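Q: I have two molecules that I believe assemble together. Could you output structure tokens for the complex as a whole instead of separate predictions?
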Amino acid sequence: MTADLVSFILRRLVTATLTVIGVSLLIFILLQVAPGDPVTLMTAGHNVPKETIEKIRIGLNLDKPLYVQYWLWFKGFLHGDFGTSFLKDVKVSKLIIERLPVSLQLVLVSGLLSLLLSIPTGIIAALKEGTVGDNILITLAIITASMPIFWVGMLFIMIFSIWLGWLPPIGMAGFFNIKSLILPCSALSFSYVGLLFRMVRANMWEELQKHYVEKARAMGLSNAKIIRRTFKNSLAPALTIAGFMIGSYIVFAVLVEYVFGIGGVGSLLIEATLTQDYPTVMGVTVFISIIFILSNFIVDILYAVLDPRIRYTQRK
Amino acid sequence: MKKLLERTSPGSLAIIGVIILGIFVTIAIFAPLIAPYGPYEMDLLSTYQPPSSKYLFGTDNVGRDIFSRILYGSRLAFVITLLVVSIELAISVPLALTSSYIGGYFDEIVMRIMDIIISIPSLLRAIVIVALLGPNMRNAILAIGIGYVPMLSRLVRSVTLSIKEEPYIEACQVLRYSGKRIVFFHIFPNIVSVIIVQVSLDLGYALVDMASLSFIGLGVQPPKASWGAMLAVGKDYLLNDPWMCIFPGIAIALLVLGFNLFGIGLGKVLHHR
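A: Yes, here they are, computed for all two components at once.
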């Protein structure tokens, strides 16, 4: 690990941390804007005497000035406390952890699927640039990118579960159960597979135009070796999208979870939104954002490891 | 024939996109003339009808003709996406132009704020804002529109910055043109092409995001004829009455395809120059 790599990592770490703080601040401010007093919402429909309401307010620190409230809220994060749900009076973090395995499976498998589908086809398309096959692939990529994922999910259920009866339509059975994972993950991967494919193809094609490829060909190097080399060089930008993808998938998983009746972190968010359970909405949002920032951070580091030039560039 | 297919020009994508868009625009404008039924017309005796000659795409759970609702839905689709994009443009373009032109601390702060907003995935942003403001169409449009601001501002800003260094801008400064004049008459025209491409793509994203929000119940509320809301209703009847889901989804996919083809094709054409 060279010195500039270390300094790059440190710089990125600082940026990421500041961003996390910024996000929590933003969410906190938004929370204040929300109409309705949290306590009123909590006690809606029940006949609660005034003293109890006051007690609750003090218990939730609502009587303290805003910046104190924020500080307490933020301190909670550092200890992994994302608030307490209005509805179920359970810690939000507990709710999230319960749902996490499902979401993890969905996101990881879908991410893998997207990469597995887009990278080989992207490389092939670049090699055969301009041919009929290439154009068909591009058209496919754009078409799949235009389809809303929850609709794709419903189509899959219709085709594969109802008509063909191959796969179970809803619910998750056990851990990494391929059968129940295929449909939702395929639907989820649709959202980015087209974009990834086009990126890989474009980068690969640009690399192939470079002089060293011509030279290698003239030297008689085998095609396989050339492809390997160019691929490594063109990998970097696709990686950036991959990092972005993971975070986005957690959110898109919301829709897929809803269609397939799977209970992941996304469904938690939706339920909380529809029941006006603000602490849960905020807690889950900050949680997902942190994961998003984290995955981008990791990808940035990987990018720097692969492409040394990046380590020297300042933020634009 | 094969040679013809091999050399598909980049412009052809944009043209197909324009054709698709044109079809939808025509449908939107002439919906009342084409649609056999009104969008809210219920016939409780004909609920859950499969597609037939009477009801082209079938009926939904309260006996409304799905075909007519899809035609009317195109109006809503255009209104929503255009509103979203207008909000996005109205905020990001002036913001990015002035911010990059002024530079310095102001620029830094604005960009940091944009970075923070981008750190929350787009759908999540929209969900949170709608959750806080209340689930209706207006808030959803606001939420999505504001969410697209960082992307566009970044784009406009980077293009502006690269133009700022050009000699002819310096010449304008030497001639003591006012800052406003330089920004609007010299920098802006060069940015327009980039903006148009991004905006066409954003129209498509806005439609999908809006449909997604409506699907979860956070966007357009019933009984409005929005394609996303129709899918939300149809979801529960997937097993027995699949037509309620198939057609609205096709409509969304086609219109988004139109926007995407147009935007991507346009982008290619501009790059080839």
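A: One point stands out. Confidence is low (pLDDT under 50) at residues 1-7 of chain B.
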